[in-house]
């Protein structure tokens, strides 16, 4: 994205008064000006001082500022009124937003930028009124969300600890999605065999007919949680579909066609065994296939997410963690912000987060689990 000179009529901020000060004239305690300065004529002194009165050209200034980090820009803006106005240029922050969006590893229901922010051509006349790109960037970037989280009151951790002493049952989560079955590396198998990342705590006694008990894991703060993994079909059928590069028939759902307006809408319901799972879990983990070279039917995926999180099956505020997963780190991935828009997660009413994850190394998984446990604990405390 090329930073261009703004349209005519855009007022530049006035240079700070300090730029107009002449050397040696700050206050009486200053040392006397050098002899060479005293020897200059008034005209020579005025000509030498003129560049201090002129701020740099706006287009050159924007290009220079574009080499700074957003954090450095915010620090620069706190130095004077001039730079406070200069660093808020909407074109500059739109450039940062489009540049950094694909690099962010997570996005949630509070920080997802509106699709129109980066989907339309920049128009200074309209965008100045519609979008504060600086505010959008600061709200959406993971660094700002982490700093906001660290600034929250510390009594939340004490509340969670006291609640863990009272609560006898560990939180349960239903895990499903095409990323469990379509990737070359198995996410579940890796979770079961990496005690240095996620420790298996055993198989609980609570059984769900046709589903089983799931697997209990122990988080790094010794909190235990249970994951019920739901596959679309049997292991033999999944293996055959993967070898033939075909789509296995999903037996977790049955389709119910409905008419919305003049169009037929896709609507799914869950089978009886899955319904029992949805009624007892505290949240959901959806494993999405984020590999860019494969075809995806995100509309169908959304319909199945809506079926699992149907408010008729349980509390409507149960959190949803979307693991945007690839097989290994060298595979080109769909950025998590784009994944959130492809799945239309903004249509959901419960808290959600999309977290980039690598199945081969479990990179990103712990960050997602930490968020999910925090949201589930907050829900149970309400």
UniProtKB/TrEMBL annotation:
<dbReference type="InterPro" id="IPR027417">
    <property type="entry name" value="P-loop_NTPase"/>
</dbReference>
<dbReference type="InterPro" id="IPR036047">
    <property type="entry name" value="F-box-like_dom_sf"/>
</dbReference>
<dbReference type="InterPro" id="IPR001810">
    <property type="entry name" value="F-box_dom"/>
</dbReference>
<dbReference type="GO" id="GO:0019005">
    <property type="term" value="C:SCF ubiquitin ligase complex"/>
</dbReference>
<dbReference type="GO" id="GO:0000209">
    <property type="term" value="P:protein polyubiquitination"/>
</dbReference>
<feature type="compositionally biased region" description="Low complexity">
    <location>
        <begin position="17"/>
        <end position="26"/>
    </location>
</feature>
<dbReference type="InterPro" id="IPR039588">
    <property type="entry name" value="FBXO4"/>
</dbReference>
<feature type="domain" description="F-box">
    <location>
        <begin position="59"/>
        <end position="98"/>
    </location>
</feature>
<dbReference type="GO" id="GO:0031146">
    <property type="term" value="P:SCF-dependent proteasomal ubiquitin-dependent protein catabolic process"/>
</dbReference>
<dbReference type="Pfam" id="PF12937">
    <property type="entry name" value="F-box-like"/>
</dbReference>
<protein>
    <submittedName>
        <fullName>F-box protein 4</fullName>
    </submittedName>
</protein>
<feature type="compositionally biased region" description="Basic residues">
    <location>
        <begin position="1"/>
        <end position="10"/>
    </location>
</feature>
<feature type="region of interest" description="Disordered">
    <location>
        <begin position="1"/>
        <end position="45"/>
    </location>
</feature>
